[in-house]
Every structure is written in C-alpha cells, then in structure tokens.
Design goal:
Two copies of one chain form a homodimer. Chain A has one domain: Arc Repressor Mutant, subunit A. Helix content of chain A is about 55%, strand content about 20%. Chain A contains four helices and four strands. Chain A has a two-stranded antiparallel sheet with strand order 1-2. Chain A has a two-stranded antiparallel sheet with strand order 3-4. Chain A binds a DNA duplex (30 and 30 nucleotides) through α2, α3, β3 and β4.
Chain lengths: ~110, ~110
DNA sequence: TCCCGATGTGCTTCCTTATTCATAACGAAA
DNA sequence: TTTCGTTATGAATAAGGAAGCACATCGGGA
C-alpha cells in the first residue's frame, strides 16, 4: 500500500549547543552567502535580509559557541569585508549534511 | 567512520493545507488531550495553555480545511464537552506517523 | 588629510503569537 | 425555573523576533 499523505509535510531543522539555537536554514544561507560575497552587507542584500539581522545572527552564534565563525575587517578602499573561518565552514557543512539526510528521507517517503 | 555530530540536531514538523499551517506538535497534543479529557477546557488546563488559544487553534484548522475536527456540545449538568470527529482522529494519526518517521531518522543517525 | 564603503551597535517600530479578562449562550438535571 | 460548568467570542495586553533608522568607527587610497 503506498503512502497517500493528504497534506503537505513541512519541516524545519537546526543545530543547537547547550539547548541554545545555533544555525538553521536561514543561518546556513547567511554563511554561504558571506563566503561567496566576502561581505556581510552584500550577503544581506543578496538574501533580502537586513544587515542588522545578519550581523546579529552571526554574533549570536559566536556568543553561544565562544568561537569565531566569520572573520571581518573594516576600512580600506573596499570599505572592508568578511569571510568564514575554518570553523564557520565546518559548521555550515554539518548543517548541510543534516538537511540532506532529511530531504532524502522525505523524498523516499512521498 | 562513525557519525560524530558535534551539536544537537533538533527539528520541528507540521502539516500544511494550501500553504497554510494545519497542525504541529502543539496541535497534536491538543487533539490528543481533547480526546482523552472529552473537554476543551480540561485539555487546555492539562496542557498549560489558555482555553482561548486551544479553541482558536481548533477553529483555525477547521477554517483551513472546511471540515470539522472536534464535535462540541454545550449545556447539561456537566456543562458540555467535546470529542474528536473521525476526521480529527485521522489528522492526528497522520501527524504522529510523520513525527515517528523523523524521530527514527534521528536515532539511526546518532 | 579627507573620502568612501563596509563593519559595529543602539533604539524604535511592526508583526505574529499567546495570555488574560470579560461576558454571553447553552441545556440537562435538580 | 434556577443552577452549574462548559462552549463561544471579542478586546486588551504582553512577549518575541525581525526590519528600519540613525550614527559612530575604521583604515587604505587619492
């Protein structure tokens, strides 16, 4: 008997550290775009989020973990910029792996 | 190589109908308690939620689906009561099945 | 030395969600 | 016909998250 689900099953996943939220889908997109754009403000614009929000998101992660996720610099001709630390990249990977897992399960079950 | 996840993976799932939220974890508990207590107000108290909220939750589901989820009655010595319709029970089951699936994936992956 | 564009941060809405308060409607049993 | 505990519903309030605004800070290059 095939699984005839009447309604759409939606889900949201995220990583936690000591019970505190670390990174979800939005956060993963943020980290990805920062790495791609090498800039927090450009990443925010690309994602349609406010700079304020993106910046706060990163700060929250870093405060929760006590480790740096993004390396920023100010001044210079370009005004400044940002890029992920090695640890930030690993965190992103960890989330993507989990997301992949659930997506795979869901498509098998539809 | 075993999967050494550094952080706790959490999730939230819910069913949708035409893009609108139908029932999540809270809603499942609500339906369960209504069936167990045969009363909306008792269910709300048991769950630590306000009657107003529980009642609205059910109404939202019914409005979204255009079908009745709970059958209520007023008056009488007991004041009245409520119980799930057959459809309400099926909806609850559908959610539980999905929740089970997700939990299974998590335990297999830990 | 001044300019520019990005980072850094506080404060003020705005929106969604949930609680609280208040009150009406109901109807079987006493 | 009075009582009692529940359903039904509006309105005000509170809490949280996110956007928007304003402005200070930084530092390489012209």
């Amino acid at each position: 008997m095939r699984n005839e689900s009447k309604h759409k099953l939606s889900f949201k996943i995220w990583l936690e550290h000591n019970g505190k939220p670390l990174i979800g889908k939005g956060g993963a997109q943020i980290l990805e775009q920062i790495e791609k754009e090498q800039s927090i403000s450009k990443a925010a614009k690309k994602l349609g989020m406010s700079y304020r929000y993106v910046w706060s998101y990163i700060k929250r992660i870093e405060k929760t973990l006590g480790r740096s996720v993004a390396e920023t610099r100010r001044g210079g001709k370009a005004g400044g910029g940002a890029k992920l630390t090695r640890f930030g990249k690993e965190l992103l990977k960890e989330y993507k792996r989990a997301e992949n897992l659930f997506n795979k399960v869901l498509t098998c079950n539809r």
